[in-house]
Design a protein that fits this description.
It contains 17 helices and 21 strands. By secondary structure, the chain is α/β, with parallel strands linked by helices. The protein has four domains: 15-166, Rossmann fold (3-Layer(aba) Sandwich), CATH 3.40.50.360; 210-255 and 385-441, Elongation Factor Tu (Ef-tu), domain 3 (Beta Barrel); 260-373, Up-down Bundle (NADPH-cytochrome p450 Reductase, Chain A, domain 3); 455-549, Rossmann fold (3-Layer(aba) Sandwich), CATH 3.40.50. Helix 14 links the parallel strand 18 and strand 19. The longest helix has 15 residues, at 26-40. The structure holds flavin-adenine dinucleotide and flavin mononucleotide (FMN). Flavin-adenine dinucleotide is lined by residues 251, 314-315, 357, 387-390, 405-407, 409, 411, 421-424, 445, 462, 465. One of its GO terms (cellular component) is cytosol.
């Protein structure tokens, strides 16, 4: 769709703000790349997660770029909701944001019905509140051949072309060439003497992080079965009776650590081993690029500690990792890295990273001739993300305890070693008695309805986890019309919570239908079982029943 934009008013200064609302990290990378180019071209650019954004800044900032993914079925990322709800307030007049110029880059996947819903809604709301778009909305689509790289570089060009004439370049600022290295985000000052101590405990990544202890962690799939699935029981520390920590359907976040072996490997490749354990005082070099909000400033720590807790070295690198690596490489290596960052290099980049799922640690080893100064650690490496796990227990049935059902990610590609999940490898390394920080995500991804309407649940594999929590709660309130479709490969190998479901069936609280795909010659999946129960489903739905699908 093409539409005419009205002329944006000039900008009072060569500066702007980029707000991202990332769930899995793409939006952060896009926001940082947009900012990096701006800084090279003489713009003062601040990048913030939407959780750190003060809504008053809408009225005080001349230009804001929003980088917005759409999450589950058209929903906004939970961190974006407070801002979104504030913008929807009916009392806001149509000229409320008349002084604001804005741009939106939306991130989505066109295989979803509500494609890029959040970015589209945000653009419309900005327009209806009187803000002026400086450029048409950009849209990244996971379904494109190169994902977001198919559209983002072109959109970024359009964005800078549109804002450049809005303000004259300021003498002495910017206009660096592509080979100039932008300043590092942080400054590292070596701590001498005993004045400042390194705290071995990482700072909590959010204000509501709590400590938990592993009570039990057991493999539930048969020994030798291709998939290792663990039932994990956690005890929440400092839990007081009467306290409601979560509801059935909520999610527990775990922020993993990189293993000591992976950290050692990375330190060796990048050449930081000899300085890995020096205490450093870390501060932001400029207010445009503050430290991650959960870190104190100054933050006294070591490179080893940062690599263990704060950054992800086990994920597949995004394009900006190659941009930074190129900045510190020379010769053929630099040429290869710059090729990966170019439009023509995207097929090769996907072939090199995404297809084989090569990790940052492995790429760093291959490009170990790069001489990266340690103060670039937070530029080069993405932050460690917390991962969510559906809680499989209801709070009423498990006072102060939380159960999870975790599939340990381990698969093969053309790489010689198996690929492992960062968080699930960390979980698999834990033993009873180990402590770990956790956070309850109570934003209500899955909620039981009010009353006791019939429920149809479809949960293949570990997707069945939250249904155990829902069923415990349904039994507590005497709701007996529950139909569960569970999918696994084999009844004898990976039938999670088998005994508990059977007990619920025996007690008349559950109708259970299992599709074990490989227990017979013809593959049977949950969709086959669903059609076998069409009468019951129709009956449930015609009486206000609800369908829950998970996994
Ligand atoms: C709301 C919610 C609830 C969740 N609940 C659960 C739960 O109850 N139990 C559970 O186990 N997980 C659950 N997850 C998934 C969980 O958050 C993690 O994504 C998952 O455990 C992997 O994390 P990781 O750090 O080990 O893997 P990562 O290091 O993040 O790697 C995961 C990536 O590896 C790739 N990958 C994984 N397997 C393969 C494969 N076979 N072939 C090719 N590529 C592959 C995929 O690209 C995937 O994105 C849930 C996720 C959400 C959003
Ligand atoms: C659980 C989940 C649900 C999603 N739902 C939608 C959706 O409804 N519409 C859409 O356009 N994209 C959807 N996407 C795609 C994401 O918006 C896209 O992958 C985006 O790049 C993620 O950005 P982030 O990494 O910054 O969180 C979904 C992705 C996931 C993982």
């Amino acid at each position: 769709m093409v539409w005419a934009l009205s002329e944006p008013p000039p900008l009072p200064s060569r500066s702007f703000l980029v707000i991202h609302a990332s769930v899995t990290g793409t939006a952060v990378d896009i926001a940082e790349r947009l900012a990096r180019r701006g800084r090279r071209e003489g713009w003062a650019v601040t990048v913030k997660g939407v959780a750190e954004f003060n809504q008053l800044e809408l009225l005080e900032t001349p230009l804001i770029v929003f980088v917005l993914p759409t999450t589950g079925n058209g929903a906004a990322p939970p961190t974006f909701l407070p801002l979104w709800n504030a913008l929807l307030h009916p009392s806001l007049p149509p000229d409320f944001l008349e002084d604001l110029r804005y741009a939106v880059f939306a991130l989505g996947d066109s295989s979803y019905g509500k494609y890029n819903w959040v970015g589209k809604k945000m653009s419309r709301r900005m327009d209806s509140l009187g803000a002026t778009a400086v450029v048409q909305r950009g849209e990244g689509d996971d379904q494109n051949e190169w994902g977001v790289e198919s559209t983002f570089p072109g959109w970024m060009d359009e964005f800078y072309k549109a804002i450049d004439p809005l303000t004259p370049a300021i003498d002495g600022l910017g206009q660096l060439s592509i080979s100039d290295v932008p300043p590092a985000r942080i400054q590292l000052d070596k701590v001498t003497g005993n004045t400042l101590e390194v705290n071995p405990t990482p700072p909590p990544w959010a204000f509501d992080v709590r400590w938990a202890k592993i009570r039990d962690i057991e493999r539930t799939t048969a020994p030798g079965w291709y998939q290792d699935v663990r039932e994990v029981e956690l005890e929440i520390e400092g839990f007081a009776e009467e306290q409601v920590l979560y509801e059935a359907g909520d999610v527990l976040e775990i922020r993993p650590q990189n293993s000591p072996e992976d950290v050692d490997k990375f330190l060796t490749s990048i050449g930081w081993t000899s300085i890995a354990d020096h205490p450093y005082s870390i501060t932001a070099r400029s207010s445009d690029q503050p430290l991650p909000p959960h870190l104190p400033s100054p933050y006294v720590t070591t490179l080893r500690h940062l690599l263990t807790h704060e950054v992800d070295i086990g994920c597949v690198p995004r394009l900006s990792f190659f941009e930074w690596l190129a900045a510190f490489s020379g010769g053929d290596m630099e040429e290869k890295l710059r090729h990966f960052c170019s439009g023509e290099g995207q097929d090769d980049l996907i072939e090199y990273t995404n297809r084989p799922r090569r990790t940052i640690n492995e790429v760093m080893y291959e490009f170990r001739s790069a001489k990266v100064p340690p103060e670039y650690i937070l530029d080069l490496l993405p932050p460690m993300r917390a991962r969510g796990f559906s809680i499989s227990s209801s709070p009423a049935a498990h006072d102060g305890k939380v159960d999870l059902l975790v599939a340990i990610v381990n698969y093969r590609t053309l790489m010689s070693t198996p690929r492992k999940g960062v968080c699930t490898s960390y979980i698999a390394s834990l033993s009873p008695g180990d402590r770990l920080p956790v956070r309850f995500d109570t934003s209500g991804i899955l909620r039981l309805p009010a009353g006791t309407p019939p429920l149809i649940m479809v949960g293949p594999g570990t997707g069945v986890a939250p249904f155990r929590a829902l069923m415990e709660e349904r039994r507590r309130v005497g709701a007996k019309e529950n139909l569960l479709f569970f999918g696994c490969r084999s009844i004898s190998q990976d039938f999670h919570f088998e005994k508990e479901w059977k007990k619920m069936v025996d007690e008349g609280d559950l109708t259970l239908s299992v599709a074990a795909s490989r227990d017979q010659d013809d593959k049977i999946y949950v969709q086959h079982r669903i059609s076998e129960h069409s009468k019951m489903i129709w009956d449930y739905l015609s009486r206000g029943g609800l369908v829950y699908l998970c996994g």
